[in-house]
Amino acid sequence: MYEFPIQRAQTLKDKPDPQTLVFGKTFTDHMFLMRYDAGQGWHDGQILPYAPLPLEPSAMVFHYAQEVFEGMKAYRTPDGGVQLFRPMENVKRLNSSCQRLCIPALPEELTLEAIKALVKVEADWVPSQPGTSLYIRPFVIATDPSLGVHASHSYLFCVICCPVGAYYKEGINPVRIYVESEDVRAVRGGTGYTKCGGNYAASIRAGERAEERGYAQVLWLDGVERRYIEEVGSMNVLFKVDGTVITPTLTGSVLPGITRKSCLELLRHWEIPVEERLITAQELFDAADAGKLEEAFGSGTAAVVSPIGEMGWGDRQTVVNGGKIGALTQRLYDTLTGIQWGTQSDPFGWTVKVV
Ligand SMILES: *Cc1c(COP(=O)(O)O)cnc(C)c1O
Prior knowledge:
Bound molecules: pyridoxal-5'-phosphate
Number of helices: 8
């Protein structure tokens, strides 16, 4: 067991109305902080009032983006409790990201305990309206005041939280997505499999271009041949083609999503054929033209699943399942959300109770 010192906020903020919440703009009263210094390791984990971080303008994170993050949620259960969904997966992925960016590994048990301790302190912030949750954002930044291009010798690990409203307020409406043939998100050998800030900075332009064309998200192709499908927006992507669910294999440029993994595990449990393999945009659009593309959806913590109703690629256009959510997509959504919010049993032991 780990005990972290807690410095309580003097005044607590008013809790916002989850109906009108905008994602990622309202933060809770406290945060978790822990420092790393060479020779000392990770030290002095503590819970403090949420406040600005004092950093030198020369702090390395500002210049060379030595930074990694995670995204996870705490869910209010029907008995008034609070639980996390596969949180150790997030901790392990954070460390995998750290390793790629030469950031010293976090002690995994301690990191999970830190997240749980913060959520416990902020338990009143976990909303209870259907579909709402508390979003948790752990991140690590390089803090050495130095412009040399090398790994920092000091870091800050921080966890902040924000209450989020229901992702689907007006029911699940499938989105229009556009195949991006110019910009790429990641390349093999790069940082695509990590959650590092730089990946997202580089993805913004394509997202803006898709939006200008009237699409909600970008369908990313591989960075070498621009043929193979990788992800949709900042979600993994899955397709049901002729009864089989196909998702891009984890080549190193695809983020290993925990929702993706959970979908695959559920599908295998249901004995639905699953293939993790390379799939080209050509194959996908040809399957659609042949009437074999039955369902398409993104997967990620924010939306759980996000059905794709329409796809554009150059001047090719295709509608998926009449623009409606598919039955299997709906089944995955119902099962995952049922487990996450504790309205159905958790036969896989995926949830971790905090309160
Ligand atoms: C976070 C993320 C995902 C989804 O991961 P989950 O663990 O399911 O939330 C997929 N792709 C990208 C690029 C991401 O950043």
